[in-house]
Design a protein that fits this description.
Layout: E1 6-8, E2 15-17, E3 28-32, E4 39-43, E5 57-59, E6 66-68, E7 72-76, E8 79-82, H1 83-99
Antiparallel strand pairs: 1-2, 3-4, 5-6, 7-8
Amino acid sequence: MSYFEYINCPYCNEEVNCMNVEFDGQNEVDFECSNCEREFEITREWHPTYGTNEIIYYECEECGKEDRDDNMFEVSSNTYLCRRCYFKKEIEKIKWNNSLL
């Protein structure tokens, strides 16, 4: 069931918009039909989908460490730094800027 899906009351077949139904972290919720005023349970169903992505590795320009792209910082076109080297350079910039004050 998607966020904007309509369902039907199991008693009177009234169409119910699920957009405003609050599940509060659960997959089932009790709901009262505005037409017949009977209570029924709405069950939220999940249908997972799967995909694949290539893992891209980059080499740190400073220390030579290879790591996944999501762990690297691109500092200029095709120039990458690992987290350690990136933050080390950032700290050096801050110290240099503070020395100018």
